[in-house]
Amino acid sequence: MAAFKVAAIQMRSGISPDRNVADMERMVREAAGQGARYIQTPEMTGAMVRDAEARETAFTTQDKDSVAAAAGRLAAELGVFLHVGSTAIRRADGKLANRALLYAPDGTLRAQYDKIHMFDVDLDRGESWRESSAYEPGKEAVVTDLGEARLGFAVCYDLRFPQLFRAEALAGANLLSVPAAFTRQTGEAHWHILLRARAIENGAYVVAAAQGGVHEDGRETYGHSLIVDPWGRILAEADHDEPGVIVAEIDSAQSAAARAKIPNLKNAREFTLETVAAPTLRGAAS
Fold first, then answer.
1. N or C: which end of the chain has fewer CB within 10 A?
2. Would you state the pLDDT for residue 53?
3. Who has greater pLDDT, 202 or 16?
4. In whole angstroms, what is the distance from residue 224 CA to residue 215 CA?
5. Bridge partners, residue 41, by sequence
6. Is the dihedral of CA 146, 228, 28, 129 positive or negative?
7. What Rg value do the Cα atoms of the chain yield, rounded?
8. What is the set of active-site residues?
9. First CA to last CA across the chain, in angstroms?
């Protein structure tokens, strides 16, 4: 298959969906102008809203969502695959989904994916997050064709669950997506190494569009959007937390070559796990 260009859009989404859509549109046009045929935006492109009451008014159903409408229109106008890394969508049951949306070059919705793994953590310095208190987790992994590549979906915290990416790679994905809003604390510790590991483990390209900087709702994200090749080499990086665009050329043949050199997808074996109890020592105190 022919090589083609991909792009990652780094944003600093605020609390206003309208402003964020305008920022997204400007940078998507920039990426398309550089020849990108697949363009990815970060997690929570539409708005970063931590306050529960504010979320009630900021987010709506998919058919009324301004990010979804703009993305479909832009994809058709520019003739690109436009991947909204995620935005908050109100489901039919009233709950929110952290949902990725992929629009085809004709403007139609090609695929969608709801983030499976919820970011429920307690970090150092009192930083605590409970994503499951606001969002309903997804239950299905998703893979779809782009023509020149086969795309597997993930969002942010999904990055820490390699079994998701392995399942997608075994289903033929050679381009893995990790749009994110990594905290600065976790990003500084693990962002680069985890993305490169997922690429190496699966012999796949990884595109990871990130949020970056201090947001209106008070959170701070790491930035450093990356495009990584199947050998774990960084092809492009936004080496900062400012909004911007990175572009790199990818080639599915390079994924096939990496998998031929290190055929771990083929060599994996089923196994069982035995837990061996420690021996009881004679004379041990009861």
1. C
2. 66
3. 202
4. 16
5. none
6. positive
7. 20
8. 43, 115, 156
9. 68
